[in-house]
Amino acid sequence: MIARGLLRPTLVCSKSIRWKVKDKLRFDFCDQLDSRPSGLCSRNRSFSFSTFRTMCSQTLFVGTKDRFQGITVDSTKEPCEILAFPDILKGSLNKWREDKVRGVWFKVALADSGWVPHLAQNGFRYHHAQASYVMMVAWLPENEVCNIPQYASTMVGVGAIVMNDKRQILVVSEKYRLFPHWKLPGGYVEPGEEIVNAAEREVLEETSVRAKFKQMICFRHVHNFTFGCSDMYFIVALTPEPGQEVLKKCDREIDAVEWMNVEEYLNHPNVHSTNRFFVSKFLEYEASGISLTYHEDTHQILKKSYLVYSLDLGQHKKMDSPNDTISQSNKQ
User: Fold this and answer.
1) What is the tally of structural domains in the chain?
2) Same domain, 89 and 203
3) Alpha carbons within 13 A on the beta-carbon side of 179
4) Residue 197: enclosing H or E segment and its boundaries?
5) Angle 202-207-213 from CA coordinates, rounded to 5°
6) Which structural domain, as residue segments, surrounds residue 70?
7) For position 173, which CATH number holds?
8) Is residue 316 part of a domain?
9) Is the model's pTM score more than 0.85?
10) What is the pLDDT of residues 182-206, one digit of tens each?
11) Which of left, alpha, beta for 2 (phi over 0: left; psi -120 to 50: alpha)?
């Protein structure tokens, strides 16, 4: 026997519905649906009772808890038919409010984009989006200020100073440019990529030169840049491997590439003053023996590896440590 409560037409369609029972129960939609579910169009489509039963058996979203008393629901891990989604969402929100959940996140895959309007109607807002999903979030406590951080607002790029034994630096002229220029090879850091690896990769891609990290030189920080984001541009010195005199440019991005004498570069009319500053600082560090290098470490709790950059004074005399100062005082 089929429970009458499972056949409420209002759950499925905004107007008339008919059903028929033969070997299995089928629903035939005969007018426009309230929502556009994935896998169902607006007219003359049907689905089996087994699918509908699966929809009704899912009562609440579970999600993944975080240390901030938040919940994240991933549509690829907790699939839900669009027809059942509004009721399940409302029930889940009521339960989460009872459990004092603070932030609720929905990671909605592109295939489940039908969820988005229902989430928006229940107080969710966009937080960020990638090519394959959108992340929406809602703050549940009414007596607590929302402290959900904004999505990453800074883009990270690299430029590389590559100087050979002839005191020539590697320079490029971009194919798509606003004005004639000679600049340092470089580009944006890819997600999950170390700054030093990005510099090595960009040099290889744009010029075919293989070079290895030598030291960090400096960085530039600017706001309201690409896509309205802040932008950090790190300048990294690389040492070219032997036998890198022959250059091959990336035809897709680069119009010209060459080894240019460093003195010529510093006085070239088509070199931006900021790039002159970068190269001047590099030469200054080379002469003084100062370098900014890194060492690898691992977070004790999160067990994630990271790089720590620090200043090496080289031939410069380091300041006395506090212990050395105490020892000198005791001798006096």
Assistant:
1) 2
2) no
3) 4
4) helix 195-207
5) 50
6) 64-139
7) 3.90.79.10
8) no
9) no
10) 999 999 999 999 999 999 999 999 9
11) beta
